[in-house]
Amino acid sequence: MKGKTQLAKQSPGPPYHMLRPFALSVVLSLLVVAPQEDPKPFVTVFKVAPILCLTWIVLRKEIMRLETVLLLLALVFSMIGDFYLLWPKKHFLEGVMAFWVAQAIYIVSFGFKRVSWKSGLAAYGFNLLCLVVALNFIPSPPEKMAVTFYSFTLITVVWRALDRHLLNKEISWHRRVSGVVGTMVFCASDLCIALLQEGKMLPHTPTQLIILSTYYIAQAFIVLGLCEGFWKL
Fold first, then answer.
1. By three-state DSSP, how is residue 77 classified?
2. Partner of 50 at 20 to 30 A CA spacing, among 5, 7, 58, 232?
3. What is the largest CA-CA distance in the chain?
4. d(CA 150, CA 144)
């Protein structure tokens, strides 16, 4: 019994306390950013603050290696996309392209070590169904093309995270599950942009609360799925 108690003391578990600044910054972002229909540039600080907190976790917990650099780059391009999408009417394409780069990096990070083509076909089929609905709410042809291109990249991230979870048991289940949850919630968040924001199904503030909260949750789970050092006891 004494031995078990000593082992428990030596293994405190993952440092969940490091997520507190992230959680606080998410609340501030929802309070400040969501109500803004024509935000001032200073609002960018609140928009990107949660991603900066995730970047801090990566820098604190990860050894600097190729996988770490890729994750940091994905977060940097995500923040660039966050900046542009504060003004979607003016910079929608720039924002989509920045997030496309981030998603392409996530594809490389999740990797192709083990591949199930069946899950890939299922993922792409689901993406086509979503596109049929979503493209009805996208106004211009260039934006339709950008969204189509981006959506297939995003669903590839989901596919790679799913295969990683199902086929690569060498990775801890915490990381595998986090990756799948993060990528799926990211899809849901982006679908909300098409349906709620572009389709104007809800007023501005509730729409932004849904989009931002799901986006931040998705990024957090993806980072935890790719951050090996966070889970080391």
1. helix
2. 232
3. 68
4. 10
Give the H or E element holding residue 129: helix 117-134
pTM (2 d.p.): 0.92
Cβ neighbourhood burial of 16 (10 Å; 0-12, 13-18, 19+): exposed
CA distance 223 to 230: 10
| Distances, alpha carbon 139 to alpha carbons 87, 88, 133, 156, in Å | 16, 12, 13, 25
Q: What amino acid is encoded at 158 in this protein?
A: V
DSSP characters over 146-183: HHHHHHHHHHHHHHHHHHHHHH-TTS-HHHHHHHHHHH
| Other Cβ atoms within 10 Å of 156 Cβ, number | 20
Long-range contacts: 76-84, Cβ < 8 Å, 24+?
Answer: 77/101, 77/102, 77/105, 78/51, 78/102, 78/219, 79/48, 79/51, 79/52, 82/44, 82/47, 82/48, 82/51, 83/44, 83/47, 83/48
pLDDT tens digits along 9-20: 555 788 889 999
pLDDT exceeds 70 at position 98: yes
Distance CA 49, CA 136 (A): 33
Residue 120: count of CB within 10 angstroms of its CB: 17
pLDDT, tens digit, 9 for 90 and up, residues 155-214: 999 999 999 999 998 999 999 999 999 999 999 999 998 888 887 888 989 999 999 999
**Predicted confidence (pLDDT) at residue 73 exceeds the cutoff of 90:** yes
